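User: I want to check something. If I give you two sequences, will you return the structure for each one separately, not as a complex?

Assistant: Yes, each is folded on its own. Here is the first sequence with its structure:
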Amino acid sequence: MAKTDVLTLAILGILRDQPLHGYQIRKRLGAELGPFRALSYGSLYPCLRRMVEAGLIEASGEEPAGSSSASSRRARIAYSLTDPGRSRLSEELANAGASSWDDDAFDVRFSLFAHTDAATRLRILEGRRSRLSERLEEVSDGLKRMHERHDAYTAELQRHGLEQVEREVQWLDRLIENERSARGGENNGSAPADH
């Protein structure tokens, strides 16, 4: 999934429940999604414009009389999902392909788990864990080789990266266990486990 497509998915997810102004969309993306904290209006508004042109969202509102400021105009335009936008969001939420657990897309997909079915959530978590397990092995091997050839600071940076991946794998293990427990509880008529 290209970064633009990830941004499109994030915007579709944020607009799922209510129309929002561009500023509100940017603020919600920053609050909910770490990778988008530095999202500029220069990235957001072209994406919104493409989404309007594609019929995924619609813009409503008007520029205030006597105002020529772009920021004033943007503050008055609310964006909302169209039926094709809702369909696209549903399709994306049902997709558990490799792109859904890539670094660029995983946080966005995870933020939409409340609207994703349990089987798809589990496939995405397991895919992410598998990807990180491969990375863990690569980083561990690289750290062993690097220790012999590089300075202590470079080796420390590699160790730091290894620890981050290890922590995320542990976190994913807990989430996967919770998802499996919840599915077992649903099959037995019990309440799902807390997440």
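And separately, the second sequence with its own structure:
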Amino acid sequence: MSPVTSTSTTDTVLEPSTEPIGAGRKRRRGPVGSRLAFVLPAFLLASALVAWPFFETLRVSFFDWPGFGPKEFIGGDNYRGVAADKVAQSAIMNTVIYATLTAFGTVAIGFVIAALVDRKVRGHKMIKFLVFLPVLLPTVFTSQVWLFGFDGNFGWVNDLLGWINPALNRAWLGDPATVNYVIIFVSILQFTGFPMVIMFAALQDVPGEIHEAATMDGVGPFERARYISFPMIREAVATVFLIQLMFGFRVFDQVFVMTGGGPGRASEVAATFVWREAFVNAKFGYAAATAIVTTAVVAILSMLFLTIFRPRRIEHAG
């Protein structure tokens, strides 16, 4: 009995299957409908939060609408108005300058601090904490603090500069020549901690043996940072720069709190201009057209950045 049972078992095991190859793998994946069920909520959420507001803003931009009542279709008049409006153009340009300089400033200073912390200089833990702390504070709070600091009459910034040289005293936020750079300076001080943490994490993956070998060959700290650390975390630098650039294009709080767009709308940015035209001047169609133009400018600059500064992977030997 046992030989027969053994043969039968062997025949059963070795019997070729007529099931198509990969059919079991397909069944384990689940039907297409179940996979779509996981994607659909995220798609609907993205559509509700991004796509629908964008297309609604685009639609409103072709109307003259005070925010209530019927809309009057006026075609491209709002866009022609933006093209001829010097204040709107200045606001968009201020936004581009703010975003670009803030991104460069925070990433450059953040990289230097990250390299110092990575090399474990004296007090590196305290440095990392103090640089990252402002990121956790509300933007309105820090802007209010600096608003009092840069006050032309009793601000502590002028007191400090006057102690160095009395000729440096000036109304920093009341001068159209300096107001935008003061806002950029304040933003760099507050947001440098974010790229610093990202690049510090990337530097942790750089093999320490490379720095040790370079040090034994007489390579200084500056050269090691420039020719070793920076190239090896190029992808992280490019990514965090793009993130900072996107944050910069959305600037509103700092300008609204510190200057309100003044003096004489010299510090107006796209977000404050759109807010003023929509909720103060009741020109929602014109504000929507300005928002669409700003979005187009942001998209073009972002694609230009991705084309020029496309990260290159570093191939490690072995």
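Because they were folded independently, the notes below concern the second chain alone. The longest helix spans residues 86-118. Residues 1-14, 21-27, 313-318 have pLDDT under 50 and may be disordered.
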